[in-house]
Specification:
about 270 residues; alpha+beta; 4-stranded antiparallel sheet; 6-stranded antiparallel sheet; 8 helices; Jelly Rolls
């Protein structure tokens, strides 16, 4: 669990690096399950561009242990500390990157709150694809200023093209070793640089249960966009396989999360 100092640090700067969150035997299983998911994944679903990315859900039969981490108190408990007792576990994904960089971006729009745990399965630092963040950029006043700067997805261009590339923006590098977790606010601006051709990352994702009118409107829009993308086949990932939604162990926690996901449009409702 986080100390009061760590909680204050997270809300101030928008991220933490937590050492040795997964033990060696756990990492062995997670790596094995990652390989099964990667082997199964349709390679035609590759996301092109600078990332050269494949992603897939960990909530399927090929990765039962990785799926269980979403309900593991080590991670769910930290999410509760940050976002309240009624925080929602929304997804777990694996990502395989073969590109050299990811552009600067936040994961969600304003007033949508939550956090993502990321586990890199190889050592990473600033020059080998570690997560780069702009500390404090989850705060609206800083994020609004960043949006006024033209950021580029590719390498620096000629002098007449003044856009800033990934490596030209001031940052903090979240260096990590296998077993470490990098946890960050969805709203923080993040990127990566000089990633390897075989960079592997697993994530756990949690949302704050909305309380204010602004948070409710933002989450409604987020759920509507998710539904629209799925109907128009703009997203190829299936985040909620039957293996997870059937809830064979009758987890009350998972049942509450599934009900919430249906309510907010992230999962199809069961016909009456």
């Amino acid at each position: 669990m986080l100390t009061d100092q760590q909680i204050h640090q997270f809300h101030t700067f928008g991220f933490l690096v937590l050492k040795n969150m997964l033990k060696e035997d756990e990492l062995k299983v997670v790596n094995e399950e990652f390989e099964k998911g990667y082997t199964k994944k349709n390679k035609s679903e590759l996301i092109a561009g600078a990332r050269v990315q494949l992603n897939w859900s960990n909530l399927d039969h090929h990765s039962p242990y990785t799926a269980s981490l979403l309900e593991d108190k080590r991670f769910y408990g930290i999410a509760q500390q940050l976002w309240g007792e009624d925080v929602i576990g929304t997804n777990s994904q694996s990502n395989h990157y073969a590109g050299t960089r990811s552009p600067w971006h936040p994961d969600v729009g304003p007033n949508t709150h939550g956090c993502k745990f990321t586990f890199y399965l190889s050592p990473v630092d600033a020059e080998s694809g570690a997560l780069r963040v702009i500390p404090g950029s989850h705060r609206p006043e800083i994020s609004d200023m960043i949006r006024k700067i033209r950021l580029k997805d590719n390498d620096p261009g000629p002098p007449e093209d003044p856009g800033l590339a990934v490596n030209e923006v001031p940052f903090c590098s979240c260096d990590s070793q296998p077993g470490d977790a990098v946890i960050f606010n969805y709203l923080i601006w993040h990127a990566s640089w000089h990633g390897s051709k075989n960079r592997r990352m697993v994530s756990l994702q949690y949302y704050k249960n909305p309380k204010t009118p602004e948070e409710i409107v933002a989450l409604q829009a987020h759920g509507a966009a998710f539904t629209k993308n799925k109907k128009e086949k703009l997203t190829v990932a299936q985040p909620y396989p039957d293996f997870w939604t059937s809830n064979p162990e009758n987890s009350l926690l998972r049942a509450r999360w599934i009900e919430w996901l249906r309510e907010w449009g992230f999962m199809e409702s069961i016909p009456a």
